[in-house]
Amino acid sequence: LGIPFIGGDPLPKEEWDYLETLGYDPEDYMGFNFVRKIPQEIRSVQTTEKNLMDLFQASKERDLRNLGVKSNDFTYASFLTWFEDNSQESFETSNVSEETYMPDVGPEATFIQNVSGHVNTVREANIISTIAKTLNKYDRVLVVYGSSHYAMERRALKKMLGTPSMYIKKF
Hints:
Shape: elongated
Strand content: under 5%
Number of helices: 6
Low-confidence stretches: none
Order of helices and strands: HHHHHH
Number of strands: 0
Helix content: 55-70%
């Protein structure tokens, strides 16, 4: 059909660059990034301690490459300590849900939620930028994202496109 697909998520390096300006360490990004993968991992395979250690190692290696960090002593054991220090609970897969890394930068948010909130800032800005660039390039654009993104992006979209003329409430 010749219809391009254009993703709106930022590169991991873009997420990390922003976090670094806020004073976060590579371990904070790698720990958060690992935590946000766990619920999906639990749904897709039977998790064991060995699976999680292997998943952590693969995630860490990918993050080191993506972030441009040469080497790092962040091990699975140090991740467990990092998680406990930053969530005030021991790491068990049953303790990890979407709420664990829900984006929030408010006073009641956990450290992990704060990291997620800052990553979300980069993500939402990149989505808006991608929509704007795509609208400037193509006559017709279909944007597919979850409704929570619209809540976050509504003001920027209204500024860019004007007041919506139609809302679809149900399909």
